[in-house]
Amino acid sequence: MEGNSPEIVSPQTGPHARLDEVVQRHRDHAWRAPLHAPTVAQFARWQAGHDRFAPLVVDLGCGHGDSTLGLAERHADARLLGVDQSAHRLARLAPDGFAVHGRAALMRAEAATVLRLLAAHGLRIDVLYLLYPNPWPKPEHLMRRWHGHPVFPLLLANARRILLRTNWGTYADEFAQAAHWLGRAADRQVLAPDADVLTLFERKYRSSGHARFELVSDDA
Asked: What is the model's pTM?
């Protein structure tokens, strides 16, 4: 039902006090955790049919996949890859965990492993969409946010453009601060109430009267 989404509540009123420390540690120590084996197999399935010479747009945390199909209309010359770890959310558009809809592929996979595999295979992301990631608003969950995750330096390095949307301003501010620490600028704005929506969640947040924030970061 639209219009009944609660606001995000957190004891954090600004960027986390340990953010810079966490980002610096991840910058200085490469992440060497084992790759998620089922994701490696899914990635190989996708790569076998991927046109590596076409622009690549990645919708990370694509939910049901509707956002990925919508983004295909915005990026007429690109190949789209939507990634989500939930079989339930992907059940309609990718019932066996993988499906191709025109230029868009939907894949059930672990997102951090996908990012590592794309970089390892020399597949640069032209536009990376982070549309309403789980904000993990409790302070103790900083490292579950994308900018606090060990894969964050690689995420920045392998994406020419990043477009993030969130309904928690602190998340956007932290992301911008973390990107700055790694030498990359990011512009954050508050979207107008009538600005377009890119996901079903965003439509619900707009109907609920939430402020919506957009951050854009381009590789200089």
From this structure: 0.96
Measuring CA to CA, which residue among 183, 158, 212 is closest to residue 23?
Answer: 183
23 token code pair: 């980002």
Q: Are 26 and 150 in contact (CB under 8 A)?
A: yes
What does the pLDDT read at residue 4?
82
Domain contains 110: yes
What is the distance of C-alpha 131 from the center of its chain? Answer: 6
Quick count: other Cβ atoms within 10 Å of Cβ 150? Answer: 16
d(CA 119, CA 140): 29
User: CATH number for the domain including 111?
Assistant: 3.40.50.150
Which SS3 state, helix, strand or coil, does residue 155 take? helix
- Number of other residues whose CB lies within 10 A of the CB of residue 129: 26
Q: Which two tokens stand for residue 27?
A: 């910058």
Reply yes or no on whether the pLDDT at 1 is more than 70: no
In a domain, 6, yes or no: no
Q: Does any domain span residue 7? A: no
- Please name every residue paired with 161 in a beta bridge, in sequence order, or none if there are none: 127, 218
Instruction: Convert the pLDDT of each residue in 114-138 to its tens digit.
Output: 999 999 999 999 999 999 999 999 9
In a domain, 125, yes or no: yes
Which structural domain, as residue segments, surrounds residue 67? 19-218
CB 186 within 8 A of CB 179: yes
CB 189 within 8 A of CB 219: no
| Domains of the chain: total | 1
